[in-house]
Amino acid sequence: MPSALLVLVVLMVPSPPVHGRHVRNTESNGISVVGEFNHESFPRFAEAVSNVTVTVGRDALLACVVDNLRTFKVAWVRVDTQTILSIHHNVITQNPRISLSYNDHRSWFLHIRNVQEADRGWYMCQVNTDPMRSRQGYLQVVVPPSIVDRETSSDMVVLESTNVSLTCKATGYPEPYVMWRREDGEDIRYNGENVNVVDGEILFITKVSRLHMAVYLCIASNGVPPSISKRVQLKVQFPPMLSIPNQLEGAYIGQDVTLECRTEAFPTSINYWTTERGDMIISGDKYEAVSMDNGYKKYMMLKIRRVNKSDFGSYKCVAKNSLGETDGVIKLEEIPAPTTLRTTTQFPSLPTKKKGKTRAGDRFGRGGSNNRVNSPKDYDDAGMPEYDDDGEFTLSSNGSPPIQEPPGAFSAAESPEKFNWCICIVFAMTWIFSMSLR
Q1: Is 247 exposed, middle or buried (0-12, 13-18, 19+ CB in 10 A)?
Q2: 292 has which bridge partners?
Q3: What is residue 20's DSSP assignment?
Q4: What distance in Å separates the CA atoms of residue 295 and residue 263, rounded to the nearest whole number?
Q5: What are phi and psi for residue 73, nearest 5 degrees?
Q6: Strand, helix or coil for residue 94
Q7: Are 102 and 89 in contact (CB under 8 A)?
Q8: By the 8 A CB rule, do 315 and 260 touch?
Q9: CB 77 within 8 A of CB 98
Q10: Single pTM value for the model
Q11: Cβ distance 268 to 321 under 8 Å?
Q12: Whole-number Å distance between alpha carbons of 427 and 415
């Protein structure tokens, strides 16, 4: 029926007589039309009707440009439904979102406001010539992705070692691409390997573990902005587990010592310390119990101040939740306190400078009844070599007297080179000391 109406409307519109070659034209519906026309006087389309892509909810504009239209009429038709939308200056359709505009009897524009998915399809601009001339353009309506909440997983709480399936359903046009990833950016343990992204609407995890506990993002995109995502939090329940870095600690009397314990549990566990008698330890002047959370992990610390004899023994860290309980023992033993060694350094006193020449025998202990080498404490004013007033050192021409060496000392006769070096060193030190006193 709409096709018959279209043909009827086209035939009812009067067209001017044309002159030219006599031809016979067969329309697609099998009707033969005999007429004469002149190609130069016929209307012609200056350009094709362009395809238009528009996002749902926006406005669309289809343009038809006809040259040499003269008294012929232009109509817009929806092809798939054979619906006449407008004829020349008049809008025929009852759709309030459709309007018409034109310019200089040449350009004809079809406006569609607030485009809906139902508007997607072919649109024809036709001129009521005989035979009818037309051009078609396609209106593509795209729809940004949208997540269907009723078909998408919400936050889940599951037991460890069970299988988990997270589902995300999205719509849009073109059909959206869906993927899963962790919100914190960490890899997902999936099918035995670590991956950053899992493609598809379903994320299936076998034998879920506490390592899978995280917030997951279902992301849908189809090239039409904006992409959309939904957060799904996965919580994995398991009984407490406990580890102790050092099960044996040592401390000496008066020292501060710290005991450490690490636990994992979900739901979050209740953690505390007890003595070996089972008494719960409360923070105070003697003890400081600290607990720090990091997700399902918890760090426990017990600081004991100024350890005394009664503090040595066993301490227990305990973790409990609705799924179970665990504990660990740390033994504190006494160790010896560190000792402090003190050393004292003594320096020999410097001799006093005397005027005049000193006998060489006095300088080296000659003339003494014992004929021995003087120790530093036996040195007097004549016990160290001196300088003359003119600054020159005087040495006896007879050389060094024989010296009776104490037990364990080296012999000058056995090691003359060592003895000579010692004499030189003594001379040099004496000269330095004498110069410093001037």
Answers
A1: exposed
A2: 299
A3: S
A4: 11
A5: -115, 150
A6: coil
A7: yes
A8: no
A9: no
A10: 0.62
A11: yes
A12: 19
Helix (H) or strand (E) holding 110: strand 107-112
Only one residue has tokens 């399936």, namely: 165
Assigned token pair, 411: 């012999």
What is the Cα–Cα distance from 358 to 362, expressed in whole angstroms?
7
- 269 contacts 350 by C-beta, under 8 angstroms: no
Extract the tokens encoding 330. Answer: 């740390």
Q: What is the DSSP letter of 338?
A: P
Alpha carbon distance 357, 70 (integer Å) = 146
Encoded tokens for 42: 């016929």
- Structure tokens given for 366: 């000659």
DSSP 372: B
Specify whether the CB–CB gap between 137 and 61 falls below 8 A: no
* 222: Cα separation from own chain's centroid: 27
78 neighbors 118 (Cβ within 8 angstroms): no
In 3D space, the residue among 49, 45, 40, 26 whose CA is nearest the CA of residue 131 turns out to be: 26
Q: Which of 275, 155, 282, 176 is nearest to 225 (CA)?
A: 176
What is d(CA 62, CA 54) in angstroms, rounded to the nearest whole number? 11
Say whether 137 sits in a helix, a strand or coil.
Answer: strand
C-alpha–C-alpha distance, residues 329 and 318, integer Å: 9
At residue 436, the 3 state secondary structure works out as helix
The candidate with the shortest Cα–Cα distance to 10, out of 44, 41, 33, 39, is 33
Instruction: Please answer whether residues 56 and 139 qualify as being in contact, where contact means their C-beta atoms are separated by less than 8 angstroms.
Output: no
What's the rounded Cα separation, in Å, for the pair 84 and 153?
46
Mean pLDDT, the chain, rounded, equals 80
pLDDT band at residue 75 using 50, 70 and 90 as cut-offs: very high
Residue among 142, 151, 197 nearest 170 (CA) = 151
Poorest-pLDDT segment among 43-47, 78-82, 90-94, 415-419: 415-419
